[in-house]
Amino acid sequence: MSEGRPILLAAGGTGGHLFPAAALAAALRERGAAVQLVTDARALKYGGEIPVDAIHRIPAATTTGAGALNKARATLVLGAGLAAAVALILRLKPRAVVGFGGYPTVPPLLAAALVGVPSVLHEQNAVAGRANRFLAPRVTRVATGFPELRGLPASLAAKTRYTGNPVRPAVLAAAATPYPSFDDGRLKLLVTGGSQGARVMADVVPAALALLAPDERTRLGLTMQARGEDKARVAAACAEMKFPVELADFFVDLPARIAAAHLVVGRSGASTVSELAVIGRPSILVPFPHALDQDQAANAAILAAAGAATVLPQTEFTPERLVGLLRAALADPAGLGRAAAAAKSAGVADAAERLAELVLEVARPA
After folding, report:
1. What pTM was estimated for this model as a whole?
2. CA end-to-end span of the chain, whole Å?
3. Would you tell me the crossing angle of helices 199-211 and 319-331 to the nearest 10 degrees?
């Protein structure tokens, strides 16, 4: 365990929030800082992957649920979380508190403001989420994952700094892999849907494959994430076409699989977009259409503007549209290589180091 007063990280219990927190934790520890994490129960399954000296759980809930009773209950839980966070901060006396979004970050960052501890808020997406919009005026600095951040008032620009999105060590390792050659004439396609998979991928991808001629399918290799009944029906559809496919509910080595692909089809969460950029792979992105803030659409637009991605609204993500894009990719390997280079140019491989330096600028002495 590191010595001295810690820097306290606060993150919601999903990979999209915890992976950047883990990357920052590693960068801070390399600089000799003690680091602890405050989160919710969901994060405990990631505990071994987060390089911190201690993990604290506090009550947290979202107030966006339907119904007055749910909102009242969530407000009471957040109040309890704030009291627990104040007690934790008074006990730990952290040098700074760093929040990564999600409702579990609200109590610790509010507590930091109440107690007078310096704080940094990191927004992974190109559009600020509701929790971060609430917290941004109350923190010392705001760090952004993309060059432009929408959703915050212009009055906060002076305390905002672009750092990029910290990525996992596995992503940095994958980034060293050169773009694959086409020596065997086959296009290696990776289809993902975020940490939970996406049903629309299972609806569209096998149907698009069925529109290809048999000789075209021989020039395609597919690795695909699908879960539950989606996985079973994708497997059945591919078996009927005698088309080999590698299927899994979740790929623990996803960065390496991204690096091995010529083209990636997936959602456009902040982590996915940042990892595609750092590794440098072209993509077809289908933003999640039901997000209140449309943050995935804004994230995807970053890679599209760089010439690294084709972005399709889900209503346009049809078998016919996808098969057209796959045929275009098969016909133009050089174009895919240019798109891969464009993706790489948009990546920020040292984002964890940039964010660590910003945190240490505002942190109190150890």
Report:
1. 0.91
2. 15
3. 60
Distance CA 352, CA 42 (A): 23
- Measured distance CA(286)–CA(288) in Å, rounded: 6
The closest alpha carbon to 280, from 313, 298, 306, 301, belongs to: 306
The CA distance from 154 to 115, in Å, is 26
Q: Which residue has the tokens 């906060």?
A: 156
Which among 100, 243, 225, 244 has a CA at the least distance from the CA of 163? 100
Predicted confidence band of residue 246 (pLDDT cuts 50, 70, 90): very high
Average confidence (pLDDT) over 269-287: 96
DSSP helix/strand/coil, 2: coil
Q: CB–CB of 248/267 below 8 Å?
A: no
Euclidean distance between CA atoms 31 and 14, whole angstroms: 26
pLDDT higher than threshold 90 for residue 73: no
- What is the number of other CB atoms lying within 10 angstroms of the CB of residue 211? 15
23-61 pLDDT per residue, tens: 999 999 999 999 999 988 776 666 567 899 999 998 776
